[in-house]
Amino acid sequence: MRFNPPPGWPTPPEGWTPPPGWSPDPSWPDPPPGWQLWLPAESEPAPGNPPSSHLVAEDDAPAAAPPAPVSPPEPTAEPSPPVPPPLSPADDTAALLARIAVLEAALTTAQAGGAAEVIELNDQRVLQDVGIYRYHHPLEDAAAYKDRLREIEGQVDELVKAGRAVLAADMFTFDGSLAKGRKMVADLGKLMLRAYNAEADNCVRSLRAGNVSTAKKRLESAVKAIEKLGAMMQMRVNPDYHALRIAELELTADYQMKVQEERERARDERELLREQRRAEQELASERERLEKEKSHYVSVLESLRAAGDQTAADELATRLADIEQAITDNDYRIANIRAGYVYVISNMGAFGPNVVKIGMTRRLEPRDRVRELGDASVPFQYDVHALFFSEDAIALENELHKAFADRRVNHVNQRREFFFATPVEVRDLLAEKVGGLLEFTEEPEALEYFQSRNLWPAED
């Protein structure tokens, strides 16, 4: 039998047979399907096997030249270790081409995987841009996250002090000495741990709520690099230690997002308090005005009665009763600060049709609040569709928000009071609960919007 090397394998010397335990070099290409490694001695080489450069070419050899005799290898007393046969130039080129093909395939696979990762990260960034963030460890407030982070830091310190942050073989020898080997393992372990912690700390410092996935991948790469570099000593980062650092990243991102939410909530609460103070000041000013007007009418009424003008006195008494009722209503609103107006407004130029804002104000004149909303935040003034006074405007506003909860424009920030609804739908819901609309307008006027639209640049 004759050994028949596949394409890309070096051609062995005449009569060469693999010694016991021999295996092909991993860098050689795989044999084609169905390839026969052993052929009868008189068979011709299989097609596709490049000729060896140290054999005589067919064109230069005599046509009837007999094949050179093959001498069997001389037996040796002790088998020599397997040595790969030398490569001829043609075989060397074929092996290199095969290796290049393997590397190109691996590169294509890696690039495809990298593209998938980029798509995933971009998707997360898009979600973050629109305000969607999914908490890894939902906790009540930022203080709870700080406490949890302190617990994580304590557990990290305990693993480091116990020498269990990095695991490695304890029977590694160096220069024939187990003690030297253990010292080398300990020194290299400290170096690897320092490199890993530096990467973890950099990830924490540069962390934002939207790039948690990127930071975790960086830390995973550091773990793989340490495991690869310390393979001889079976060195690797303790999975428990790595899990703690990953949890630290996730909790830090959650903490940053929670702090941002609490700042926004505090800003809204300050705005609510300012609105309440303005309402209280307006109510106090109105109370003072009504008291002055009442004093004036009382004086005039006494004069008319003293003069005997009963008809004028009766008319003035009616007016005085209205003023006293206004004072009573004003005092009620001061005592019950939850009373106010629920408004339904829209802005076609800013948000398009069929989008309304449902809110409440404690102002004496609710339109003042509507004008404030349209001062600088939107390009056009709001149109008022409905105004309704309620003794508990806060509760009524919450009921309306719950009724249209599935039609919110912003499902993440519940303090954004915009809904995909028509003014008629809100009016009907108000009519089901309580009556007494001061006014209702179905179609928005949107005067500024319609006048400006005619002057806009033409679209391409």
Automatic annotation (TrEMBL):
Keyword Coiled coil tagged: yes
Keywords: Coiled coil
Keyword check for Chaperone: no
Classification lineage: Bacteria, Bacillati, Actinomycetota, Actinomycetes, Propionibacteriales
Annotated Pro residues bias: 1-34, 64-88
Pfam families linked to this entry: SNIPE (PF13250), T5orf172 (PF10544)
InterPro entries: Phage_T5_Orf172_DNA-bd (IPR018306), SNIPE (IPR025280)
Coiled-coil region(s): 256-307
Record protein name field: T5orf172 domain-containing protein
Start and end residues of each Bacteriophage T5 Orf172 DNA-binding domain: 350-433
Source organism (scientific name): Kribbella orskensis
Annotated region (Disordered), positions in chain: 1-91
